[in-house]
Amino acid sequence: xxxxxxxxxxxxxxxxxxxxxxxxxxxxxxxxxxxxxxxxxxxxxxxxxxxxxxxxxxxxxxxxxxxxxxxxxxxxxxxxxxxxxxxxxxxxxxxxxxxxxxxxxxxxxxxxxxxxxxxxxxxxxxxxxxxxxxxxxxxxxxxxxxxxxxxxxxxxxxxxxxxxxxxxxxxxxxxxxxxxxxxxxxxxxxxxxxxxxxxxxxxxxxxxxxxxxxxxxxxxxxxxxxxxxxxxxxxxxxxxxxxxxxxxxxxxxxxxxxxxxxxxxxxxxxxxxxxxxxxxxxxxxxxxxxxxxxxxxxxxxxxxxxxxxxxxxxxxxxxxxxxxxxxxxxxxxxxxxxxxxxxxxxxxxxxxxxxxxxxxxxxxxxxxxxxxxxxxxxxxxxxxxxxxxxxxxxxxxxxxxxxxxxxxxxxxxxxxxxxxxxxxxxxxxxxxxxxxxxxxxxxxxxxxx
Length: 449
What we know:
It is built from 14 helices and 16 strands.
């Protein structure tokens, strides 16, 4: 009897273990990075990879389409990929896309590279920028040699073609997916993500995964989880376009100059300041948090300007708009919804709080501005000027000088038209000269009234 019970217990244990194994999901995350490589792109890569790490995903596929960008941002992304706790697959996609310049370094640092037919990779020669006539400003040999060594090392560590990697810089060479696969730069050519999963299944990562070493990928029939770009990511994608950023900077400067030349209107300098800040953000030197903080500071400047120089709402509206945008960028982070610093649930509530706070600040400064306007329009309540228009009583004949009693005080007075005003008559102050009141008789007012 006991052996039978032991057998049943063993079978139950096996069934429980099988259920546990089958219940473990094979999840692959898919994200997209499109546009220039900037400080914002660093935040995007960190967000996407962190999301996959928290879910203990089998891998994360990042669809990359970029003409290149900032070298310092690229190096931060490379470091993040090499320290990822899940395999990072760079997928050059869609057809017609590219992984050029900084994008090539990022691809070579990944655990696996895939390309869609019709894409290209390469052309990594570093440049310092563009001259006023639009020509490229070449980097000096010192910088070029550094990046040659850098890309060769990325290729060597991942077991990819070092010679071709170097030619991406020295000869500005670019290759198609077929050439890249033939010469050992990439591992997979796939038309879509599903085909990529099938072809990459069973492959070993080209570089070690942090804490795991080289990993054999099990991607067949994996569940796909897409991380969609937020509205914020889409906006940043457009303002980081070099042409748009340059245009915003110039329009911002023009607005400020025009505003200074036409004081009192305030519209040109307000719009110019916003465009100038957006242009600076578009240069890509900022991450989401830094950009958000800068916009919040700009909002505070607008609010203070409204209080000091009331524009009947113009600065307040500009402050509310920049405060809301800045708050959304500032409180971004790595929650399940893809936001930064806070979870998606908290972020949903936080967005409402940001909007309410912006409205309250706007109302506060609008009320303060209205108070200032009323104070400017009100007559002074201190000094001799406040006596003008007051009515007093003659206590010593004003002929043409005398004494009047006003507010319980005795004042030296002088008749405005030089005529005598006898004791007891009511007089009105029309002017103040030093300590002498210039008065005139108030017709129709008798003594004792």
